[in-house]
Amino acid sequence: MKRDTAALTQAPYDVIVVGGGINAVACALDATLRGLSVALLERGDFGARTSSNSSKIAHSGVRYLQHADFKRLRESIRERSFLIQNAPHLVGSQPVLFPFYGHGLKGPEVMTVYLKIYDLLSPERKRFADPARRIPDAKVISKAETLKIAPGLNPQGLTGAAVWHEGQILNTERLLTAVMRTAVERGAHFVNYTEVTRIVVENGAVQGVEAIDRLSGQSLSVRGRLVVNAAGPWSNGVLKTAGAKQKPYVAGSKSFSLLTRSLCDTHALSISTRAMYQDKKAVLDKGSSIQFAIPWRGSSLIGSLHLPADEDPAKEGVSEAEIATYIEMINEGYPAAKLKRSDVKRVLWGMLPGEEQGMAAPEKQYLIVDHAEGDAIQGLVSVAGVKFTTSRDVAQKAIDLVCRKLGNKEPSRTDSTPLWGGDIPSLDAFRREGAKALDFLPPAVADRLLRSYGTRYEAILDLGRRRPELMRVLPGSDVLEAEVVHAITDEMAIRLGDVVLRRTDLGSLEYPGEAALRACAARMADELGWDESKIALEIADVTNNSGYNGLINVQQNQAA
After folding, report:
1. How much of the chain is helix, strand and coil, in % rounded to 5?
2. 22, 79, 314, 451: which sits with the fewest CB atoms below 10 Å from its CB?
3. What's residue 85's pLDDT?
4. Is 458 a domain residue?
């Protein structure tokens, strides 16, 4: 997977995708598998904003039962199953604990019925040929069992808990990369740090895009029959360049999560907090909001809190006051947490489509807009998704529309196509064989290589065979220098943050330490020809702008 901006200008494409988040790359993969020629242009790095800052959960949609929204529930369950089937090295399952008090609508009697309905509506969880992929039944457990799992809960009035399993994405950045690599291996052309400055429209029809290579400053003209605008928070700005007025994306919500010390080691713990906005679509008026403290790499990922957002993503950030408020809410809902600001290892945030500008309520459904209808622009389609889990389904629907416009009758194949590294018939056998093949490495390094790269871990070993010095582990981590080089040569990593935050696990959990950052930057400098001033700039950027506690460069909410 090489970065080649010059090749963009050589021939027209069937489809040009604008954006590099999970919905954009999913659209590119779907279109490529249908035989369309595809180019994708991303203004920054792939998945660097909202897609990287998710809750790492492949949702089953259990919450949709409160809305009696069985359609979305079934969609989420199916999509979770596709992820587990096609990327089992990156997606597993995570038990969730939902305590209840008393014997009313949220008591054990009603919840038992609730969970039975949920199980009946999710038969896919047990249909995997590979037993290691199967998901257990939901159940109600006793008060004693509940307190054994989460002894910090208030025992007064506690009558038990519901337990069900969600999918858990072990590394959202590697999953997005797996989608990209699957598309590129089948002919798609991806470039990062290339900003679309104009969608070219002539006589009411799209002709392609104009762009600028943000690394070289070179202007590019890319021809294409159809443009898919999947630029997330930048979607409205992209549309303005085409003269379109229909907005697929209303900036109504910024979503942020906290990575903290562990609050519950085994189960994702639900925490009831005061509601931040009124959910007018719920069948039951809960009067509260449910947050989850999700176990992730020995820590807790607490999320997500939704707050009003400015339409311009450049004006947004997360303030210290907002972080303090969220910590206060969690401590109110779960006093045993006793969270302090110093417990926060990293702040993750992104912007989601909102139901109404200026409101905190996130949009609950994806949006697909055909601009031939409202804007009289042929060949322009906009897509805005709201869930990482359902990005494949949203992409399929969007490319169905694209194919109707282009006269392509090929069906979607993304539901049955293993993602890069995910061609694993038996997960247990793969782990056993992989551990044996990597027994010369420290166990933590070997395990992470199998989880990050799946069946493609040999690419890292091949580098190490050619250049043995690359098999060194970066200080204080389980990341090999070979992974840094692989990210540069095969995965378009350009900046230090690309490697530290998105191609490897070096800094995705917490600040990796100055020694690790400097060693990683030194290896990148050797490969890319950086001088000392460039190294210093790259280290400062990662240190100050990655949401690390004590080092976070959060902006004040400029909309306030």
Report:
1. 40, 25, 40
2. 314
3. 98
4. yes
* Residue in the block written with tokens 């994806």: 366
Band of pLDDT at residue 49, cut at 50, 70 and 90: confident
Looking up tokens 């551990």 gives 435
Mean pLDDT of the chain: 92
- SS3 of 382, please? strand
Strand partners, 211: 196, 220
According to DSSP, residue 145 is labeled H
| Number of domains, the chain | 2
112-156: pLDDT as tens digits? 999 999 999 999 999 999 999 999 999 999 999 999 999 999 999
Q: What value, to the nearest 5°, has the Cα angle with vertex 508 and ends 506 and 513?
A: 50
Distant-in-sequence, close-in-space partners of 406: CB < 8 Å, separation ≥ 6: 14, 15, 36, 225, 226
What's the Cα-to-Cα distance from 110 to each of 66, 116, 139, 161, rounded to whole Å?
12, 10, 12, 12
Confirm if 121 and 77 have CB atoms less than 8 A apart: yes
Tens digits of residue pLDDT in 371-408: 999 999 999 999 999 889 999 999 999 999 999 999 99
Domain identity same for 452 and 531? yes
**Alpha-carbon distances, residue 490 vs 86, 296, 333 (angstroms):** 22, 27, 45
Structural domain boundaries, residue 519: 427-544
Nearest to 351 by CA among 255, 258, 257: 255
Query: Can you give the pTM of this predicted structure?
Result: 0.94
Per-residue confidence band for 253, with pLDDT thresholds at 50, 70 and 90? confident
Do 386 and 471 fall within a single domain? no
CA 15 to CA 380: how far, in whole Å?
A: 10
Bridge pairing between strands 219-229 and 205-213: antiparallel
> What is the C-alpha separation between 301 and 294, in angstroms, rounded?
5
pLDDT at 410 exceeding the cut of 60: yes
Q: Which residues pair with 381 in a beta bridge?
A: 228, 370
What is the rounded (10 degree) CA torsion for 362, 368, 373, 379?
A: 130
